[in-house]
Amino acid sequence: MVAFELNTLQVECTMFFQENPYTFETVNGISIRIGRRVEDLLPVLGALVESMILERVGSGESAIYRYIQPTWSGLNEESLWNEV
Known about the structure:
This protein is of the alpha+beta class. The protein has one domain (8-83): Winged helix-like DNA-binding domain superfamily/Winged helix DNA-binding domain (Arc Repressor Mutant, subunit A, Orthogonal Bundle). It has four helices and three strands, in the order αβααββα. A hairpin with a 6-residue loop joins strand 2 (54-57) and strand 3 (64-67). Helix 1 packs across helix 3 and helix 2 (27-34) packs across helix 3 (38-50). It is elongated, with a radius of gyration of 15 Å. The mean pLDDT is 86.
């Protein structure tokens, strides 16, 4: 079993990008939009990039973050529900 820590800021960032899937934003822009400090966001965004939830383009303060939409390997929604 894989252990993980549920970080509320990770959830908040993930929800922000899920609700705004076409957003391309710097850490400063994300900070303004969700009302969090850049210092708190940097490690969280890094973890989301490592988890392949976000993509980072560039580096440093000018890096752009964007949401990676999940794919279902060619399965349609109906066949997914039939599996459940």
